[in-house]
Design a protein that fits this description.
It comes from Myceligenerans pegani. A six-stranded mixed β-sheet has the order 6-7-8-3-9-10, with helices on both faces. Strands 2-1-4-5 form a four-stranded antiparallel β-sheet. α6 packs parallel to α7. The chain has 275 residues and is an alpha/beta fold. The structure holds adenosine-5'-diphosphate (ADP) and magnesium ion. Adenosine-5'-diphosphate (ADP) binds next to β2 and α1.
Length: 275
């Protein structure tokens, strides 16, 4: 079977501000994700997670390396964008703040209809598809005519997920998609994502600074530190027995049973000394 997503040697450097040094935001990241699989990408702010996510969905151009979705190189996908047949083999992104990505003038049904229309859904199928999408992400039909400001943060994120699912993507990339939500709402969205993955076989790339959140929704984890993958493996294994001191530091710095501020300081000093 073809893998949903194969990322090979992705690298991206940003020019520093003014005469500042160049920043290697992402440095040779590779991984493979099967259909229906889920990968968590974790690391502190600035570790390169968003840049990696942007390259996967085509919002940033890599300096080198390739992104292959459903057996097709992303660069060829772009060239074939006009061919509507290819629309199903794409990756879609869900951002932290759907307020920014949702049109304030459109209600829920309008926003979904707009997305479907733009991807070539025939007119006579739109109403039905809108209802199906709302149902799929757990939005009550009475919300069809609500606009973004009338929705809760969790409901807005459900709309953003529905929009991303509208074209039936192979890969769904979520960048800090639950980071702005209350813990109980986070749990609801994570459960929803897991259901969607199981039902549709969409592959999830779940990006978060929060290792505990990532652990709830993914079966593989990739830990990024300064643009590099310092550790990858099964989620259980990485959470229970981290091999890299940076992973241990992330685990020890989160509130919860692993919280060890003194250990964090110790590990941070060791990491700084090593580079
Ligand atoms: P994360 O999402 O893990 O916080 P980012 O991918 O946003 O990490 O950033 C990685 C590094 O690349 C940081 O040092 C950041 O300052 C830099 N960076 C990200 N985007 C840009 C950009 N558009 N221009 C210049 N530098 C950038
Ligand atoms: Mg980020």
């Amino acid at each position: 079977m073809t893998d949903a997503l194969v990322v090979s040697g992705l690298t991206k450097t940003y020019r520093g501000a003014g005469r500042g040094p160049r920043v290697v935001a992402v440095d040779g990241i590779s991984f493979t994700l099967a259909a229906g699989g889920s990968l968590g990408v974790v690391g502190e702010s600035g570790s390169g997670k968003t840049t990696l996510a942007q390259m996967i969905v085509g919002l940033a151009e890599p300096d080198s390396g390739t992104v292959v979705i459903d057996g097709r190189d992303r660069r060829d996908l772009r060239r074939g964008r006009r061919a509507r047949l290819q629309r199903a083999t794409e990756a879609q992104m869900v951002f932290q703040d759907p307020y920014g990505s949702l049109d304030r003038r459109l209600d829920v049904a309008g926003a979904l209809a707009d997305t479907l229309r733009r991807h070539g859904t025939p007119k006579d199928r739109i109403a039905r598809d809108v209802a199906a999408l709302m149902d799929r992400v757990g939005l009550a039909s009475r919300l069809a005519n609500s606009r973004p400001h009338e929705l809760s943060g969790g409901q807005r994120q459900r709309v953003a997920i529905a929009k991303a699912l509208a074209i039936d993507p192979t890969v769904l990339v979520l960048d800090e998609a639950v980071s702005a939500l209350d813990v109980s709402v986070q749990a609801q969205i994570l459960t929803l994502l897991d259901e969607i993955r199981a039902e549709s076989g969409v592959a999830l790339v779940f990006v978060s600074h929060d290792l505990a959140v990532v652990g709830q929704v993914t079966d593989q984890i990739l830990v990024m530190y300064r643009g590099r993958a310092v550790e990858t493996g099964d989620t259980d294994q990485v959470l229970r027995r981290p091999e890299h001191p940076y992973t241990e530091m992330l685990l020890s710095s989160a509130p919860g049973p692993r919280w060890q501020p003194e250990r964090v300081a110790e590990l941070r000093a060791a990491l700084a000394a090593a580079t």
